[in-house]
């Protein structure tokens, strides 16, 4: 009961953020209380740090890369290209925006997609003079695809990194399993969004008010470096997998290279367009404290019996066949994530799967189902993921207010069919691959 109270209070403070209290300080405070009352031990700190450090610093490096590219105009250029390629046809523009969001989510993580693409899409919608209902359809699509398309790579979501590291899944193996599954998720998301919002999508729009894509480029040098750097980074992920090099080290090296280019370090910062110091200052350093603190609080819940209870449920699911085991694990993870946020939910699921007594093939399905549930399931509620909270914050700053009730109505309508389709794709696809 004490562990549960500490968790609930910590989660409330993380979501509420009274007087601008950072999420990291709230989580760290909860961890210190848990330590003080013996819910977790000092030895648990090392265990949790070993689980989260690589994922956390990878995420920070990815956001630094994303912020630099955003300041250089990379995402604005891409969005203007898409708007022009839509050729004035609203029903072509809608899927193209969704696909753009899927690519950004895959390569720059779901938080990057929610944080960076949303304001750009809003700016374009204003230029195109879309009506409020039409604009809402595109905004909802942008927010939802950020999470539902965050499955394909280990680096596409913090959840993926934590899970891959915990279960020692290599970058290549993870991609082999999840890239096809992610394609199904994107198609299902687009199909459901289309059914819900097709009537709001304008048939035609004028591109006369759109600027040329090249006008969005603020730093040509960074822009030119972006594509080869991202290609090299992707190759490096696969190439360094067998060497045991942490993903955070590879991503951090790419971030440093981009920082050097943006800051013109070789010429003492002269002619620099992007302020690297501002980017580093605005990087999500609070996520480091949040990861350690929140995971310690959740680890205390596991010590108090949550892990054992979760393992019992998974054992029962494992006896019902692979389809029920996979779908059940995915929806269970989604429900837990929508209540307690997907970051702590990921660890809860991983600990429970690790303790469950199920066949190896079923266990692997459960591992990936837990990832899918924690990537997609948070869309049930506004508190399910940091990406959703970021997205809502960005919308509020742009005077697009979506209440929690309105959001949940949309989330409960869109998420279940997409989640089900994605989990069924996993059940079909994973057994076709050779054993790890």
UniProtKB/TrEMBL annotation:
Compartments in which it is found: Cell membrane
Membrane topology: Multi-pass membrane protein
Record-linked CDD domains: ArsB_permease
Transmembrane segments: 32-52, 59-80, 92-123, 135-154, 174-197, 221-239, 245-266, 287-311, 323-340, 410-430
UniProt keyword annotations, A-Z: Cell membrane, Membrane, Transmembrane, Transmembrane helix
InterPro entries (alphabetical): Arsenical_pump_ArsB
Tree of life domain: Bacteria
Name assigned to this protein: Arsenic transporter
Source organism of this protein record: Psychrobacter coccoides
